[in-house]
Amino acid sequence: MAHIWRMIAQRLGFGLLTLFVVSIIIFGATELLPGDFAQAVLGQAATPEAVANIRRELGLDQPVYVRYFDWLFGVMQGDFGTSLAQRGRPVSEMIMSRLGNTFFLAIYAAAMAVPLALTLGVLVALWRNSLFDRVANSTALSAISFPEFFVAYILIFVLAQSGYFPSMARMPAGADLGEKLYRAFLPALTLTLVVTAHMMRMTRAAIINLLASPYIEMARLKGMRPSRVIIRHALPNAIAPIANVVAINLAYLITGVVVVEVVFVYPGLGQLMVDSVSRRDIPVVQAIALIFAAAYVLLNLTADVISTLSNPRLMHRT
Amino acid sequence: MTKKDVLLNIRGLKIEGKSGDDWLAIVNGVNLTLHRGEVLGLIGESGAGKSTIGLAAMGFARDGCRISDGVIEFDGTDLREASQDQLRRLRGKRIAYVAQSAAASFNPAHKLMDQYCEAPVRHGVMSRSQAEKDAVELYRKMQLPDPEGIGFRFPHQVSGGQLQRAMTAMAMSCRPDLIIFDEPTTALDVTTQIEVLAAIRDIVEQFGTAAIYITHDLAVVAQMADRIKILLKGDEVEEADTETMLSAPKDDYTKSLWAVRSFQRAEQAAPRDKPVVSLRNISAAYGPVKVLDDISFDIHPRRTVAVVGESGSGKSTAARVITGLLPPTRGEVLFDGEALPPDYRKRTRDQLRHAQMIYQMADTALNPKLTLRRLIGRPAQMYLGLRGRALTERIRELLDLIELEPDQYIDRLPSELSGGQKQRIGIARALAAEPRFIICDEVTSALDQIVAEGILRLLDKLQSEFNLAYMFITHDLATVRAIADDVVVMQKGRVVEQGPKPEMFAPPHEPYTELLLSSVPEMDPDWLTKLLEQRSRKGLPQSADQ
């Protein structure tokens, strides 16, 4: 076990480095955007004096590296700064509620998509080249071929127009879990349709890839049922590639869902980030970017740990 | 024997394999009868269809193969007519299979015990706890070390020879009527092979299990089988009981198989020249793992030094040190008395040219996308600067040397050649550089015996023609007997013994050399029995790892 902890510690170290680099890139990228917060907030009324005033007031007249390091030292002390757009409101407070919503939707979608994808993946591997395989594959492929908003609108058309589920996912304050699940069902279903195909096909490929192995032939020659051959003999050896593709898709559920959030008016992080970019509210953009990067780092780390745990050759070295 | 004793009866078995869109015959009408408790040896070169027949005896055909005709009757059931469910209930329970590579055929994700118990528990023969007790019993019978504990290890934690015995125990788990042994010792070292052979023979005898023993090694099958059947390209050549088959083979093909081991190259005069290559006190390591410990030997022009040892003894590492792929931690390699730079990147083109290499797996050593013209032409171009017509002439000359018709072969791809022909291309490629020294790394061990002999003869001819010095890495002592002038015996990274061949093959030996020499199977059907008796009398270890 010791080497697992060592690996985790090492990877977390590299993760921190990644976050640092990401923060520089995001800061640099926002610098490249035309205009800054002062111009964005004043809009038509932007006289040079007014712009200069606001800049001075917010410290935007400082050179870029001064602003970056100010921000960086703040972050290292756990202070993400205050929003520019909503004067004086701490960034962490703005993000907190959105973060909860984003995680709720991601976990909701993942709870449907991951078991569904893995089960389907195993079944299509078991009944490969059958009618079921072809139908499942082509359905899954068409689901990812359509743009997300299109899938979302189809679902609204079918399930919301007929009154089964709400098309607006805004949560009333103090909603209980059942209410939340009900209201967020359509966005979660949309995301499920979008991510299932990738995971299912990878599961199928990873299993089928192993079917030519001598130990699979051995299992068959021991008279094992086809289902047991797949689940007991092939699947445990296919966990590493499957864990990786699941991690990538889960990261996507956290970071890439802005379109779905917009369609269903769901108050998640993605929307907040897009709004903050257009308002040039840099501290908020930075904080969200770091959260997204951290999600990628942690999920990939988890996938690697699972791969290692699933491989006796790495776990029990002699 | 009466008719009732017949366990397996195969009549007119035809099997086809898919090649592109066509079905090609792999087995054309083989008959086979096996009685209860009898061991039948199936012998043939690669492509003879022996494994395919073995699997067909379980009613199984690999993907891309189909059983197209014939009757396979197992204890009164026609396996071709049986449903998948019926077959499933036979497999593992009444007919079991032992595969060639136990390391690949055990599932890496599960412990040995879980894999052992699977068949008896799933087939409802015993409960899990009974099966576990039974496993320990069988592990003990198979003389596995730590029979109580070994089942709770993963396959990668167990050595190859032990795994092969564990797999035989697993095949025995339901006490089947028939076991198919598909080359169970081919992947093992000679010293390990002995113990596996002995264990298999004992247990088959003890339980009165019938067996089909598939192998390409005549000496091995002579120890194991009551009867031997010879196959050639999917056809039956002849069948007889073991004694008769060994003493009086009828068919010409069988006789040629028997004669293969007769190649013996002419004795060479003692070396007068100074050595081409000398290793001086070489030690080497892969990271923290020490693999070579203070080895020294010389290789003279026109002589062949055979480096022998089991896997892991450091033979191939020595070759890597000589070629500069692995700089040694200590010691030096001399070429014509001058020290070579340890790293190949620091060597001159001429230094590189003079030491060439031929590999074990010609399949992977030849770029599958290049024609022979480019494969062989490349070194001639790079080292000797040949261009245009001169280059083509040289390539044709080289093809002539390796006995392949230039017009016919020059523009072929490796995939259009047989295994032996590919190995010949490997030789031509080495010769193209006009080297003085060639390392042959197990060049014949992936080939059938008849083909291998052709390669050995060719290498011998080329050596006298071009005054070549060979370093011949092998684990096969028959090959050593055939071609070596000097022998270096290695074990665990050290040189145990070295000297001219006649001395090395005559007693007295170092204990390890003795073990190695006596472990080479002989055609005598009683060889294994006598050897085991002799060893237990002398109190010698049965093998290297016990």
TrEMBL record, chain A:
GO MF annotation: an example: dipeptide transmembrane transporter activity
Source organism superkingdom: Bacteria
TM region positions: 12-30, 103-127, 139-161, 181-200, 238-264, 284-307
Compartment(s) where it occurs, according to its Swiss-Prot or TrEMBL record: Cell membrane
Domain ABC transmembrane type-1 residue range list: 99-303
InterPro entries found in the cross-reference section: BPD_transp_1_N (IPR045621), MetI-like (IPR000515), MetI-like_sf (IPR035906)
CDD domains to which the protein is assigned, alphabetical: TM_PBP2 (cd06261)
Family in the record: Belongs to the binding-protein-dependent transport system permease family.
Membrane topology: Multi-pass membrane protein
Keywords associated with the record: Cell membrane, Membrane, Transmembrane, Transmembrane helix, Transport
Name listed for the protein in its UniProt record: ABC transporter permease
Keyword Membrane belongs to the record: yes
GO cellular component: plasma membrane
UniProtKB/TrEMBL annotation, chain B:
Intracellular or extracellular location(s): Cell inner membrane
Gene Ontology cellular component list: plasma membrane
GO biological process, one term: peptide transport
Matches recorded under InterPro entries: AAA+_ATPase (IPR003593), ABC_Ni/Peptide_Import (IPR050388), ABC_transporter-like_ATP-bd (IPR003439), ABC_transporter-like_CS (IPR017871), Oligopep_ABC_C (IPR013563), P-loop_NTPase (IPR027417)
Topology class, membrane: Peripheral membrane protein
Keywords: ATP-binding, Cell inner membrane, Cell membrane, Membrane, Nucleotide-binding, Translocase, Transport
PANTHER family: ATPASE AAA-TYPE CORE DOMAIN-CONTAINING PROTEIN (PTHR43297:SF14), OLIGOPEPTIDE TRANSPORT ATP-BINDING PROTEIN APPD (PTHR43297)
Name used for this protein in its record: ABC transporter ATP-binding protein
Organism of derivation: Rhabdonatronobacter sediminivivens
